[in-house]
Amino acid sequence: MDLRDVAQALVERARSAGADMADAVVGESDGLEVGIRLGEIEKLKRARERRAGLRVFVGGATAIASSGDLTAGGLASLVDDAIALARVTARDPHGGLPDAADLATALPDLALHDSALEDVAPDLGFARCRAGEEAARAASPEITNSEGAEFGCGGGEVALASSAGFVGGYRSSSASLSVVPVATRDGQMQRDYWYTTSRRLDGLEDAAAVGREAARRALRRLGARRVATGTYPVVFDPDTAASLLRHLAGAISGSALYRRASYLLDKLGEQVAAPAVTIVDDPLRQGGLASRPFDGEGVASSRRTIVERGVLRSYLLDSYSARRLGLRTTGHAARAAGDAPGVAPTNFHLEAGPHTPEAIIASVPQGLYVTELIGFGVNGVTGDYSRGVVGLWIENGELTYPVEEITIAGNLLDMFRGISMIGNDLRFRTSTASPTLKIDRMTVAGT
Amino acid sequence: MAEATQPERFFLDRFDLTGSALERVLGTAVATRADHADLFFEHRVVQTASLEDGVVKKATRSLRHGVGVRVLAGTRQGYAYTDDVSLERLELAARTARYIAEQRGDGAVPVRASDGGPHDLYAVTPAPVETPVADLAALLSRLDAVARGVDPHITNVLASAAVEHRIVLVATPDGRLVGDVRPLVHLSVSCIAERGGVRQQGSHGGGGRFSFSELGARADAYARDAARQAILNLDAVPAPAGTMTVVLGPGWPGILLHEAIGHGLEGDFNRKGTSAFSGRIGSRVASELCTVVDDGTIPWRRGSLNVDDEGTPTQRTVLIENGILRGYLQDQQNASLMGMPLTGNGRRESFAHLPMPRMTNTFMLAGNDAPEDIIRSVDRGLYAVSFGGGSVDITSGKFVFSASEAYEIEGGKVGRPVKGATLIGNGPDVLTRITRVGHDLALDDGVGTCGKDGQSVPVGVGLPTVRIDGLTVGGTQA
After folding, report:
1. Superfamily for domain range B6-234
2. Do B58 and A49 touch (CB under 8 A)?
3. Which of B57, B354, B422 has the CB atom closest to A388's CB atom?
């Protein structure tokens, strides 16, 4: 079954059932997940899912129906459900599909699919897990236990058809490996993890190296204590720095802006970060973890500078939020089959700076190096930020003892403007990526 | 609806299967050295409507259905699922799932199974999912007016309503079929307030396994509260930073228990010895004022279940009794491996997921103090009455939860509202610092969703007013 045909048929049926406009997403995926714990097989899971989602516009009102039942009868009720719902919702003058001029015409091959991930034998996954977990457990006698290692891979296809004149689809795949060792000293346990993820099987990092890094991270947390409440410089490692970028992406997403629920409202063209900060969104990176040839409405994607030398240059918009704001869509519609398009960044990163991570740490007389953030204390409306921290304490430019049960707090606008050093260690390990960042002043709450 | 009382017939008819076909599939699944196998059928319909800018702009309806085949062999679990349900697919899934049992080196582990029947906690007629979407829309429009009526500075109201109908069926090799029909209704209201260039938000919601009309009866209070909170936060001052006395209000602040101790008492972590509570049954983990239970049997609650997702009836499990750790939350695999009783906590997000020990409704029993006396007893501290979300590292025991409505306490009186702050503490330690427990136990309004290992399930929490002597407050005012 060609998914594009299913999507197109849904759009046509919706049109003949009374929809003025419609678009449909159809997706299919297969997956394998395996786990090893303490050297023994713990889990094997095989998945197979298909899903279709239809959005209709009837007299300016919209509704969405989705289903895992792709039989003829299932698809027919999908159309009926969507049309019936749209007769109840209110007309929205900003609703509708993207302008035809914005739709993707050529679909670039972005190397998103690896045929080696189509039918992976469980034993391959078990072997990678074993190698990763064994390396972690061999790293130190203080690695006393393990939450195990997991390998996952999968592939699938997604198709989109729209009565605005778009039909397209692409295949993609992904694989990942993670290791979670537990370290113990003086009766206190600490766990940490490390991972690798890629579109390609041969793009995964060496399993033993992942295991060793996971062990290093768990071991360095042993003996963690609290520190005194105060104001200090804070250094974020690349993974925790990337979480700050995700908060920024949320605040420049069209839906937050037209709802006036963003601390970056009306800040286009203004200094929202330190002059050294440049942030880029690139949906077309070859093999990128969030790359795609078109967005969730069929709009062409392109590389875009979001923050240029600290100045906000672009929001992230889908066609609806663009119309609400009197702007043009930026091709950032993200689409799950069962919902209206939302807005999400693609491969989103902060450009590397000149400093080695060591030099950044060495610049701090007394402060915090953050390796993990926990909790949900981020208010996107005000930018107020308060989260739990795990990390290492910096004294005289050197990492000393581990810290935990403390928080850091500030305001995201002040934090981005307060970025004073940027690392040269940018790696595209996740779709949102950052080098090491230093922020000059944040409140640390502890004893 | 006929299917509302007959999950067995519903699935067999829908997918053109017979009881003997299921037994054959389960036979395939256990036909190696497996200890146990089960099939989990699920059919879920969700209808939603959402409002913004004063009108209902969006409605959705979704259908998910499928089946998972699970094989248990000691510590191993094999699982295969499909949403393309046919006998052929089921046989294939069974052969895939049993792979893990084929090469096991350990001996058989008898798997505990309950022979108790399901409770009857939430039979609702008509099923909430049958509610015309126009009724959802009418409710949301009314709430928009209610929220805006609270204060002229409310500039936007986002509200959404969801009605869900979930039918599940667990089949086991002994021929047992246990089904459940689970209605769920949910409402959330979020308000944006703007005054003099300052913007803030407030939110409230609720729901449970009850009728849509019941939700409608409760809804105005949620809308008023969301608006009140947004306006209140306009005047919030920066939160303090450091360790201080914290008073938690009743109800939803029970998320403290969920994060600080609940997850750490789930059987899987304790079997593996990776929880900060591992091996501590019988020891003191809380002040003697504290008795904490997990109870999946409370009628109409969001966290309640007639049976868990392995077919075990839910129950009330005492976790902490007068400060002493008494029990863990179990699913079949972990109860069997640990030689402990089933507690009816084997839950999964959907047919695409393996069951795990999960909480249902977790709360602390009421104490003797008047809430106003508890606040009066604090010279300087924080009074937190509502929270966003929380999380925990079950191995180190460190947990956080983030306040969305909190106040200073000065000289025994509730003072100015403070901006949201994260509270952080140590699970095995925090309940030992509870020095006062109020007589005002309340369960939350039905908003909780718990995430674990990528799976989300609805849960409930509850708490009386409590005083905690020494919790770190993560504000900006050092």
Report:
1. PmbA/TldD superfamily (3.30.2290.10)
2. no
3. B422
